[in-house]
Amino acid sequence: MKRRILGLMLCTFFVALIATPLVIKHVSKRHESIGAVPLHETVTARYGFHFQEVAKAAGMHFTHQAPTFDPQLDHIMSEVASMGAAVSIVDFDRDGLLDIYVTNSGEGSHNRLYRNLGNGTFQDVAVDMGVADVNQAGTGVSMGAVWGDYDNDGYEDLFLYKWGRPELFHNDHGRRFERVTEQAGLPSWMNANTAIWLDYDRDGRLDLFIGGYYTEDLNLWKLTTTKIMPDSFEYAQNGGRKYMLRNRGDGTFEDVTEQLGIKSRRWALAATAADLRGTGYPDLFIANDYGVSELYFNEDGARFREVGKQTGVGFAPKSGMNAAVGDILNQGRFAIYVTNISEKGILLQGNNLWMPEAGTTGENLRYENLAREMGVELGGWSFGAQFGDLNNDGYLDLYLTNGFLSADRDRSYWYDFSKVAGGNSTIIADAKHWPPLDGRSLSGYQQKHVWINDGAGQFFDVAQAVGVTDTYDGRAVALADFWNRGVLDVVVVNQKGPLLLYKNTVTPDNKWIAFELEGSVSNRSAIGTQVRLFWNGQEQVQEVSGGSGFGAQNQRRLHFGLGKQPHIEKVVIRWPSGKEQTLTEPQIGHIHRLKEPV
Amino acid sequence: MKQELNIATTSASSTTTFSLAAWVRWFFSLENRYLAPMFITCILAAAQLSFGVLESYSRTLLAILTALGTELVLGRLFWGQWPNLASGYVSGISVGILVRAPAMWPYALCSMLSITSKYVLRLKGRHLWNPSNFGICVLLILAPEAVSSLGIQWGNYLPPMIIVWILGSLIIWQAKRFHICATYVISFFLFAYIRTWITGHPLLAEVAPITGPMYQLFIFFMITDPKTTVQTKWGQCVVVFLVALVEMLLRLNESVYAPLYALFLVGPAANLLEIWWHARQSGVAELLQPEIRGLEVRPE
Question: What is the pTM of this model?
Answer without folding.
Answer: 0.91
